[in-house]
Every structure is written in structure tokens, then in C-alpha cells.
């Protein structure tokens, strides 16, 4: 809809007034656990003596201001109020100066959102008709049964223009392409949580076509993408195409209205190693599900080992999109000029699968010297998680040689150092959370890469150490994500009372349903604003790092959705939900 000058001017003046007078209450809009700290953040007034909490039974409480915090970026003063011990489940009403909101306390506040975060992957499946999506049902689009080999990927046996079939898999994000790096990373991240809670996932049903079989729905969902990934390996040499893509991004149309030719392009060392790692994990994790997937573990093992071998022989085959021609390609790059972390993850996963000492040696060779949260561009944390899980299983046994034990122990030390560092700033933070206190916490995809992945790491640390020390901090990150932040958004679609309605997501924009798919995590505040020049109808409301977010479909740098980001949401929220 085009906005007239008058409405824009009105909005600006109202916005200006709001900035001065409006009292805002920021809180987790989804819900809290009974035994969790319950802090709200008030902006626009000093709420001392003005906060009223009405319990589900009608009792009125008057909590005090705990502290005030001045934003290092905007200079805004905010007041943190600890609502106290609201441990009885139910809906509490919170009022400050004429503003009010509710706060839900529940034994499993994240049950629905955790499930929706995983079910989202069903809704973004490509190459099949969506028939269990309710209002979001749609006919088959992107069959990908006739994909061309791009000149950059040509070999003697598969010259340019060869037609291959490469169906299924998830759409990457707001766009319709399928990228190996991001696909493998996303599955690997969800596998890390799956491995910790197989019983929880055995019970978690997401209402997908495979829900009736003997395999957990999470694994079935992963299989939908793994099937596609297998087709991305060149059967002749074991190398893996970097992506399956149109030359240019499609318009904001439905899958059935997309008509550009799709190509598989150059093989890359990073895609091939991520493929090797995730296939190795999948071979191991699917082994108990022979009834549904009898041949898969052997097939995945062979695919993983061949891919790894190709990568060893092509260690500098980095993806260079600018070199592609006939046609040139302008879609997402997932480019990365350093494969050490991919070698580390792949060697680690292959060692766990095969017990071959060569993989242990390679993993040691590429061992990272510090822990950084997992992202598509730095997958070393997925390697670390392999070793932490391996340690859990094999500790106190003679199953592992000394070198493997030392490696796990070293990585655990770095990992704990990271977690201690992560929680340092909470007492003085603006929103009572470990996430969001450094300018580096904000950027493209930050809510996933920095918020969810940090929180998941904290939960993992508790599990390794047998403590509950880090859990409150992880919960604080969920509070931030779900509304207790500078924008007031609960950043997951379909949840909370102010959540994104206009994500940069082609299907949600082009379909007839007003609400976007539920359960999608948006990228989040991004002061880089790399989309500014492409935005014609909207402007960022602020340049402050933590407020540089706009719920507008034009904003791909702050409001897109993506499989790796949703994977972090699954990994984090399912972990929390599984704990209780
Ligand atoms: O829709 C595209 C999105 O998926 C990507 O993340 C983003 C950055 O590569 O690009 C989007 O496409 C835009 C393109 O880059 C520039 N022209 C406008 C396109 C749609 O907004
Ligand atoms: O998640 C990616 C982010 O880290 C990069 O900064 C950005 C620009 O290269 O690309 C993001 O990935 C996009 C991908 O290239 C295409 N599909 C949409 C992805 C999410 O925006």
C-alpha cells in the first residue's frame, strides 16, 4: 500500500510524541517458567511506586524498581523491575502509568513455539505440494527435476548443460534457492540438540506426512533436506555443488509462478566439507531407524567419505561467484575463504562415525583455539559439539585414545571460558540478558547467530558440567528474543502480541493469507542496513544498533527469515522445552 504524505507526516508526529511521553513495558510476550526470574523493563517514566501486578487470583502486588540502565547507544534510560516470585502458573496483569500487559507463567511456556519452529521446515519444503499446512497449503512448485549443470561445474562426464534431477529440500530463506553450506549447517545445528534429547524428540510430533512412521519427526524433516543434499554430490568424483540456484533472485511471487532455469554451480571445498560432516552425523543418527530408512546409513557414510576425500584433494576450491559466467549468477553466495573450521567439523563427525584414526589426526590438526558460536561461515562450534557429545558418551571408558580425550578436554576448557565471558555483563545490561550488550551482537542474522546460539551454548555448558548455573542466563536471552528488547518485538512470527507481520519471505508476501507462516525467526536489528538502497517504501526507524530493525518485507537485512536462523531457534527452544 502506498502511504500518502499526510499519513506519513501524521505518523512521524505521533511517533515523535510517543518517543517523549509514551510509557512502554517490555517483557517476554510468550511466557515464563514458574521458577524463573521475572523482570520487566520500563521506558518513558520512572516507574518507582507505580507498578501494579495483579495475580491470577486477584491479589495486587507493588514491586520495586531493581535498577536503572542507560543505553550505551541511544542514551535512553530504562528501569528494570523484578516482579518477584510469581511461581503460580497463570496470567498476571502488569500495569504502569496507564499502560498494561500480561505475563504468562506456565510449566511449559515454550511447548508451542518450539514445535512451531520445527514445523516451519515443513511449510518451506520445496518440490512437493503442501497439504498439511492448513491455510498455508499450496501446490507443488520448483520440482527441480530438470536442473542444468552450470559451466562452472562442468566435467567430462557432466558437461555444461547436462540435465540432472535435484528435487526436494527446503527453500533457504526469503528466496527460493537451495544452498548446500546453509542446509548442512542447519541440519548439523539441530542434530546437536537432537542428540541430547532423543526421548523428547521421539515424542515431538509436528504433523508432517511422515508423522505416522517409526522415526522421530525431527529426523524425518531433516531427511527431506538430506535427500536433496545427496543429489548435490557429483557421483563421478564425490565433490559437492555449492548451490542450486536461478541466475537472479525471483520476484515476490509464489513458487508456481517462478520460471527461471535453475542450475547447479561450481563445487566448493566448504560446501563439500559441510556435506561430509552432516552426512556422517546423519549416518550415525539414522542407524536406529532401519525400518523406515534401511539403506540410508550406508549410503550417507559412503557419500561423506567420498566428499571428504574430494575436499582433501581440492583444499582451495573456494566459491567465487564473480567468476561465474554464461550465465552470471547474483544470488546468495555463502562464500568463505577459510575451510579450517569446515575441515574440523567434517573430520570430527567422520571420526565419531568411523573411529578411523586419520580423521582424529585431521581434527586435531584443525582444532580451533577458541570457541565461537556456530554460524554458516564458522562451523567450528559444530565440531566442538561433536567432541562434547563424544565425551559425554565415552567418559570413563577405554573407547577413546588419549589424543581424543585430550582434544575433548581442551575444547571443553575453551568452551567454558566462552560461557563465563558471555554472562559477564548481565548485571549492568539494559535488558537483563547476556545477549545485546556489545555492538557486535547486532548485525545480519544476529538473533540467531548471537542470541539463540549463545543461549544454546550456555545450556550445553550446564549439561557438560552437571550444573544449572547457566540456565537462567539462557532464559534471559529468550526473554530478550521474545519481547524484552529495545524494539518491543517478539521476533518469532505468530507468537506474542507484537511480532513481525511482513517478513522478507516470498511465499508469505505473495500468498493470500495475511499472517506470515508461524514460527519464523527474523534476522533482527542490523545497523549495517545493507538493504537501505533497495528499500523504496520503508525506512529504518533508527540507526541505533539495537533498534535498527523494521518489520517491512523490503528489509532483507533485518527482516528476512532463513533455515539456519530457524535451526538455531529449534536448537535453543527445543532444548529448553526438553529440560522440563
Ligand atoms: O530476496 C533476496 C534475499 O533473499 C537476500 O538475502 C538478499 C541479499 O542477497 O537479496 C534479496 O534480493 C534483493 C536483491 O539483493 C536486490 N534487489 C532486490 C531483491 C529483493 O528485495
Ligand atoms: O545469512 C547470510 C548473512 O550472514 C550474510 O551477511 C548475507 C549477505 O551475504 O547473506 C545471508 O544469507 C542470505 C543468503 O545469501 C541468501 N538467502 C537469504 C540469506 C539470509 O539473508
Features:
single chain; 580 residues; alpha+beta; Glycosyltransferase; five-stranded mixed beta sheet; 13 strands; globular; disordered N terminus; binds ligand 9MR
Topology (elements, then pairings):
Blueprint: H1 5-21, E1 24-26, E2 39-43, E3 51-54, E4 60-61, E5 65-70, E6 77-82, E7 90-96, E8 99-105, H2 111-123, E9 147-149, E10 163-164, E11 178-179, H3 180-196, H4 198-203, H5 217-231, E12 243-245, E13 263-264, H6 269-286, H7 296-313, H8 340-354, H9 357-365, H10 380-394, H11 402-422, H12 446-465, H13 471-481, H14 506-510, H15 556-559, H16 563-579
Helix pairs in contact: 2-16, 3-5, 3-6, 3-10, 3-16, 6-7, 6-8, 7-8, 8-9, 8-10, 10-11, 11-12, 12-13, 12-16
The structure holds ligand 9MR (2 copies).
Structural write-up:
By secondary structure, the protein is an alpha+beta fold. The chain has a domain at 138-409: Glycosyltransferase, CATH 1.50.10.10. Helix content is 38%, strand content 9%. The chain has 16 helices and 13 strands. The strands form 3 sheets. A 5-stranded mixed beta sheet has the order 10-9-13-12-11. It is globular. It starts with a helix and ends with a helix. The structure holds ligand 9MR (2 copies). The site of one ligand 9MR has 8 residues, from loops.
Brief account:
By secondary structure, the protein is α+β, with helices and mostly antiparallel strands. Helices cover 38% and strands 9% of the residues. It is built from 16 helices and 13 strands.
Amino acid at each position: 500500500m502506498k502511504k500518502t504524505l499526510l499519513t506519513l507526516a501524521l505518523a512521524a508526529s505521533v511517533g515523535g510524541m510517543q518517543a517523549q511521553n509514551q510509557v512502554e513495558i517490555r517483557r517476554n510476550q510468550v511466557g515464563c517458567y514458574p521458577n524463573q526470574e521475572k523482570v520487566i523493563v520500563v521506558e518513558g517514566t520512572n516507574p518507582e511506586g507505580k507498578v501494579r501486578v495483579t495475580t491470577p487470583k486477584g491479589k495486587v502486588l507493588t514491586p520495586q524498581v531493581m535498577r536503572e540502565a542507560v543505553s550505551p547507544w541511544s542514551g535512553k534510560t530504562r528501569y528494570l523491575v523484578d516482579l518477584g516470585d510469581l511461581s503460580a502458573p497463570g496470567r498476571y496483569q502488569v500495569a504502569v502509568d496507564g499502560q498494561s500487559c500480561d505475563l504468562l507463567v506456565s510449566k511449559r511456556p515454550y511447548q508451542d513455539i518450539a514445535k512451531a519452529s520445527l514445523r516451519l521446515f515443513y511449510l518451506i519444503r520445496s518440490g512437493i505440494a503442501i497439504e498439511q499446512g492448513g491455510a498455508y497449503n499450496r501446490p507443488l512448485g520448483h520440482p527441480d527435476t530438470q536442473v542444468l549443470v552450470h559451466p562452472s561445474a562442468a566435467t567430462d562426464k557432466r558437461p555444461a548443460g547436462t540435465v540432472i534431477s535435484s528435487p526436494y529440500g527446503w527453500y533457504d530463506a526469503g528466496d527460493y534457492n537451495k544452498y548446500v553450506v546453509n542446509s548442512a549447517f542447519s541440519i548439523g545445528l539441530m542434530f546437536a540438540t537432537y542428540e541430547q534429547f532423543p526421548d523428547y524428540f521421539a515424542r515431538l510430533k509436528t504433523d508432517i506426512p511422515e508423522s505416522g512412521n517409526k522415526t522421530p519427526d525431527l529426523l524425518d524433516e531433516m531427511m527431506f533436506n538430506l535427500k536433496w543434499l545427496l543429489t548435490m554430490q557429483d557421483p563421478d568424483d564425490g565433490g559437492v555443488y555449492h548451490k542450486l540456484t536461478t541466475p537472479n533472485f525471483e520476484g515476490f511471487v509464489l513458487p508456481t509462478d517462478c520460471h527461471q532455469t535453475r542450475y547447479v554451480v561450481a563445487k566448493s571445498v566448504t560446501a563439500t566439507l559441510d556435506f561430509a560432516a552432516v552426512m556422517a552425523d546423519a549416518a550415525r543418527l539414522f542407524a536406529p531407524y532401519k525400518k523406515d530408512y534401511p539403506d540410508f546409513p550406508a549410503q550417507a557414510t559412503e557419500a561423506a567419505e567420498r566428499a571428504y576425500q574430494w575436499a582433501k584433494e581440492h583444499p582451495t576450491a573456494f566459491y567465487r561467484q564473480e567468476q561465474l559466467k554464461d550465465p552470471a549468477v547474483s544470488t546468495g553466495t555463502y562464500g568463505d575463504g577459510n575451510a579450517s573450521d569446515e575441515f574440523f567439523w567434517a573430520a570430527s563427525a567422520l571420526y565419531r562415525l568411523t573411529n578411523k584414526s586419520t580423521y582424529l589426526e585431521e581434527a586435531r590438526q584443525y582444532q580451533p583455539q577458541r570457541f565461537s558460536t556456530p554460524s554458516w561461515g564458522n562451523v567450528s562450534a559444530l565440531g566442538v559439539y561433536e567432541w562434547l557429545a563424544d565425551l559425554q558418551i565415552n567418559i570413563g571408558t577405554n573407547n577413546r585414545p588419549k589424543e581424543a580425550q585430550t582434544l575433548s578436554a581442551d575444547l571443553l576448557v575453551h568452551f567454558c571460558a566462552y560461557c563465563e565471558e558471555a554472562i559477564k555483563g548481565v548485571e549492568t545490561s539494559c535488558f537483563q540478558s547476556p545477549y545485546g550488550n556489545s555492538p557486535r551482537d547486532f548485525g545480519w542474522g544476529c538473533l540467531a547467530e548471537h542470541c539463540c546460539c549463545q543461549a544454546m551454548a550456555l545450556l550445553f555448558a550446564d549439561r557438560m558440567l552437571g550444573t544449572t548455573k547457566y540456565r537462567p542466563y539462557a532464559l534471559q536471552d529468550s526473554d530478550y528474543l521474545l519481547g524484552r528488547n529495545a524494539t518491543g518485538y517478539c521476533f518469532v512470527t505468530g507468537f506474542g502480541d507484537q511480532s513481525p507481520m511482513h517478513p522478507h519471505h516470498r511465499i508469505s508476501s505473495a500468498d493470500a493469507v495475511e499472517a506470515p507462516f508461524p514460527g519464523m525467526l527474523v534476522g533482527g536489528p542490523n545497523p549495517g542496513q545493507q538493504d537501505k538502497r533497495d528499500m523504496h517504501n520503508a525506512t529504518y526507524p533508527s540507526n541505533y544498533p539495537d533498534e535498527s530493525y523494521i518489520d517491512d518485507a523490503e528489509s532483507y537485512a533485518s527482516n528476512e527469515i532463513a533455515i539456519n536462523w530457524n535451526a538455531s531457534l529449534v536448537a535453543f527452544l527445543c532444548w529448553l522445552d526438553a529440560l522440563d
